Prior knowledge:
The complex is a heterodimer.
Chain A: E1 7-11, H1 17-26, E2 30-34, E3 45-48, H2 53-62, H3 66-74, E4 78-82, H4 84-89, E5 90-94, E6 104-109, E7 120-123, E8 136-139, E9 144-146, E10 153-158, E11 161-167, E12 170-173, H5 184-191
Chain B: H1 2-10, E1 18-20, H2 26-34, E2 39-41, H3 44-47, H4 52-64, H5 69-75
Parallel strand pairs in B: 1-2
Helix pairs in contact in B: 2-4, 4-5
Amino acid sequence: MSDTRPIVGVLGLQGDIEKHLAVLERLGARGRRVLAPKHLDGLVALVLPGGESTTMSKGLARNELVKPIQAFAEAGGAVLGTCAGAILLARASRNHPVPTLGLVDVEAERNAYGTQLDSFVAPADPGGDPAFEGMECVFIRAPRLLDPGPEVEVLLRVDGEPVLVRQGRRYACTFHPELTDDLRVHAALLEA
Amino acid sequence: MTSCATCTKHGKLPVPNFAAGGVATPPDAALCRQLGAEAVFVGSGIFKSADPAKRARAVVHACTHWEDPEEVLNACRGLGAAMEGIEMGTLDESERLANRGW
């Protein structure tokens, strides 16, 4: 019997790849590591995981993935970037800027809450998108999303700051939804 | 005991495994990944080779594309000499790991 599950890619260069693949499997999708442009063929969605954004940005260029990922998103492919992945999706980054993909109209401030020791878990502010109400958000050396453009919808905030935003079928998330049992962010990507 | 039980249940460590030691070629790094390491740490294998910058890039490439034998092979081309091992018999007694730090 052929496998008819939708295939979702996870950028496989560096970062929390395995945990994202595990969440996608739990949601009934088939995960695939994306390391080369050919791995984008047939994907319904792509996850850019958290990790280290300088490493990932260099890896995107070295493996000739920048233009193919931009083309995937521009052709309507759904994309979720978490933490470092959100930095890569932004139109630009600040605080030791790295080249980004420019797929979501926000600016990302790297290490915006401080060092690794300043990592924390916090509940989302009330009054966000009801689909994500009560979400516990894990922030690890997290970025901030600044100056969202007119097409960007802020879905969740923590302490008043945007932590989950959407622009069409593209989601940027500054926390790590793959580290809790709350699968709603990934579910939204699959339904996007 | 809890950690032991966790490893048995999941077939892996509860934290990422950084492999290190004696990795001198891109396939060495790919092999570590095949054996289950999430990351590979390379020091001397790069700095004691003929062209460290080129070899560092090649090791990263093989570590990333460890499941693709062709990419691992490509990473091996044009690197010059790898780090050489040291024959045990040529080491001074005092330089042997077993005698150091006592």
